[in-house]
Design goal:
The chain is an alpha+beta fold. Helix content is 30%, strand content 19%. Strand 3 and strand 4 form a beta hairpin. The chain is globular.
Length: 113
């Protein structure tokens, strides 16, 4: 995150840092952030510490421009920025068969198989 500001008590606008890339080389953009957020929202327990870090299921992300998003929450939530810091937003390839095969091959090389 480059910067953020509250628009109102249930909407925060976030400017994403330019030049950031995911592990697979995909550039972080507002659209990739929205896609990754939507994916994490589908998981029941996306955070190892527990569900208290989950965003409310009705939280929505809107793309404002190429590096700006608005997160809209169904009610005020003072933990939003803390939850964001604890969240993992993954590249599109994360979990794909190709990415899994590549990661497994790299792990096998690392342990000498």
């Amino acid at each position: 995150m480059e910067d953020s500001r509250w628009i109102d008590e249930t909407t925060v606008e976030v400017q994403l840092r330019k030049g950031i890339r995911y592990q697979d080389g995909e550039e972080l953009s507002a659209e990739s952030f929205r896609r990754a957020f939507d994916e994490v929202q589908r998981w029941k327990v996306p955070h190892p510490p527990g569900t208290y870090l989950n965003f409310h299921p009705d939280t929505r992300v809107e793309v404002v421009d190429t590096h700006t998003v608005r997160m809209r929450f169904p009610r005020p939530d003072g933990l939003v920025l803390g939850n964001s810091a604890a969240s993992t937003f993954r590249a599109r390839a994360f979990g794909s068969r190709k990415a899994s095969a590549t990661a497994n091959a790299a792990a096998a090389r690392a342990i000498g198989e």
